[in-house]
Amino acid sequence: MIRKILYLLVAAACIAAPVEFFARQRFPELADRRQFAELSFIRLLNSGVVYRPGSNYDERFGFLNNPHIRETVRTDEYRYTVATNSLGFRTHEITPKPPGQRRLMLLGDSMFFGVGVDYPATVAGLLETTRDSLQVYNFAMLGHNTVQSRIAARAFADQVGPDHIVCGVFIGNDLLTNALNYPDENNHIATHLDQVAASRKRLAAALAPFTWSTALRVAAYSVYIPRLRYQWAAAPDIIAATCDHLAAIANTATTVGSTFATVLIYPKDAVAGGPVEIWSQSRRPGRRLAETCRTRNIEIIDLLDHIEGPADRDRYYYAQDGHLNAAGNQLIANLIAKHYLPPPATTQR
Questions:
Q1: Distances 295 to 62, 290, 292, 298 between C-alpha atoms, Å
Q2: How many CB atoms neighbour CB 72 within 10 A?
């Protein structure tokens, strides 16, 4: 019996040793415990949460694009040009609202920003073609969360004078950071540093069984941390935090005489379903958020009510990048127009 146990231990060591060697060579950044801890926290949030002066730093929003830029972004999947206004947003300059014009204000992150597509193919550009005299102001920004959308609504809604405000919430990275950030008394982004520290400590405890081996750290980083992200994001207090921010935007909308609605956007694996989604549970936070918001009379378009399965994933998302492609932007523009804009005017004959 002892011989068998020793044999199994030796065999396990013979298998584990080359795996560990490969992991250390292929993922040297995860071999260091401190670096593993920092990278794991970044992967958990999948977004920024503490903002410090540096490149593109902005006191109010944490960061913004530079104003008046025009640059072309190229990857293996797409090529598109971004132009920003004097505020650093990919949208029109704010001008006085002429009589008879309807205005829609978009808020959100990279999903509404229009990664991968030129302006006419963004949600904002497409909406402007659906109705006569509709102008769309898009204050969505790469990497922003719902707190930054709340700040943008408060900062610019009165100047824009929108008839409708629509905020996109991305289930893949907004919910956890929404609970860690808040707008301060100056309407600037701020962070619950005590909650950030508590989240780091909680994550370290969850990853403790993986830290003694680089190979296990790689496995945790690749497949376990995403599961933690969606498990934690589905917690009632995390859901409530996002609902509170959306309710605050709805109050701003009411103040300026606008309607308000929210679009819930899911990561592509959540849309596809199957084993990856079953493991990560990436649909659950969105479904819970939709249910909770509706109990608080916040209008919701839950994208998972309209697309589902591998075919829709491939139709509406970039395969590698994971953002919405041109068809995905068109889908959301159609849903917003159908649910929240008045019917197009008909020509009398």
A1: 31, 9, 5, 8
A2: 9
